[in-house]
Amino acid sequence: MYQVVQPRILCMGTGALKSLEMILGQMNPQKILIVTGPNVQRLGILQKILSAMGNYASRAETFINPCPEPDVNIVEECSKVVQEKGFDLIIGLGGGSPMDVAKGAAVVAVHGGQMRPLLGRNQLIRKGISTIMIPTTAGSSTETTQAVVVNVPEEGTKKSIWDTRIVPEVALVDPELSCLMSPKLTAETGLDALVHAVEGHTSRFANPLTRMYTGEALRLIGRYLYRAYKDGSDMEAREGMARAATIAGIAMTNSGLGAIHALALVFGHKGFTHCQSLAVLAPWVMQFNYIGHEELYTEVAEALGEEIRGLSAQEASQKACDAVRRLLEEMCISPYLKDYDIEDVQALALMAHRGGQRLLPMNIREVGEGDALMIFKMAFGYA
Ligand SMILES: [Fe+2]
């Protein structure tokens, strides 16, 4: 038995934004809060959204989330605004951070305004305010997921609310909105999508439907990520990456993630972005994981476009790891910890292992403390 949740409406493809007014007409909100970030406002995307809202634009107000990585306090601040002004629809517009703040505020506002008691699995007791997610990047995948992930400063780690009631009602994914991303942001968010697809595909809890999505996401990423990085105006590549990020998100929210995301949590308080922390772990965790699971990693290699004819299962699996490392290097993201300001690898590995306990059980191969240390040593370049 398996269950798959996803937004009620997925509105995808170039020109999808033109459907926003019609979707709003079906939902008929009286007061709309658009949660977005300063860059979206600066780049003129907010104005584009307001135009696409037609008559509904006059019912909208804006909340600017200044945090590059979402934070429990900003979610509570946003939920307070929602409660006080009685918004009945929240639009999350931007990258992962404003979308997570929007999703978080939608449920925190109907649970008394405090987020901390809701952290964990299935702590919600009622449905939140309706949400529409409009991503302007291609990678966080939060437009489809049943999770809100936030930094909890006093605990020095990230935590999440995980509940099917978090899944947005609508995900509107128009690749034209992701065209303004810089090459660096394209690379970093694309890497997040790639890791969602790899971990979703190889998770212990993957199922035939999620593997259908991850197989296609990997094919699209193999074909289009580097192209989108090299030429941001390549619409075919942008369209492919937008679709890949969204379907990888549906897969991973239903199948779970693995040791890359689990061990990456430790970098939250080292000042790394989410994408940097994935970069220094992805090739090495994959290299550890494929032993005993070569068939799955051969599928990953093949979907990414690697030539695997005539290779042994082990050689083909290694190709999957090499493909990810090569792609990172081609996009000028170092997969080696020695290139970052990190010193005590042993202490970091143990802390990562302790902090990753919630996600590690989803990983296809059991990861002990010694294994985490070996992975971090590979990441540093010792092994
Ligand atoms: Fe991620």
At a glance:
By secondary structure, the protein is α/β, with parallel strands linked by helices. The protein is 48% helix and 11% strand.
Structural description of this entry:
With 383 residues, the chain is of the alpha/beta class. It has two domains: 9-178, Rossmann fold (3-Layer(aba) Sandwich), CATH 3.40.50.1970; 183-380, Dehydroquinate synthase-like, alpha domain (Up-down Bundle). Helices cover 48% and strands 11% of the residues. It has 15 helices and nine strands. The protein has helices at 20-27, 38-42, 45-52, 72-85, 96-108, 183-202, 208-230, 235-255, 259-264, 274-279, 282-289, 294-303, 313-330, 345-355, 369-380, and strands spanning 9-12, 32-36, 60-64, 89-94, 120-121, 130-135, 147-152, 157-162, 170-173. It is globular, with a radius of gyration of 20 Å. Bound molecules: fe (ii) ion (FE2). Residues 192, 196, 261, 274 line the site of fe (ii) ion (FE2).
Q: Which features does this protein show?
A:
alpha/beta; Rossmann fold; Dehydroquinate synthase-like, alpha domain; 2 domains; six-stranded parallel beta sheet; three-stranded mixed beta sheet; 9 strands; binds fe (ii) ion
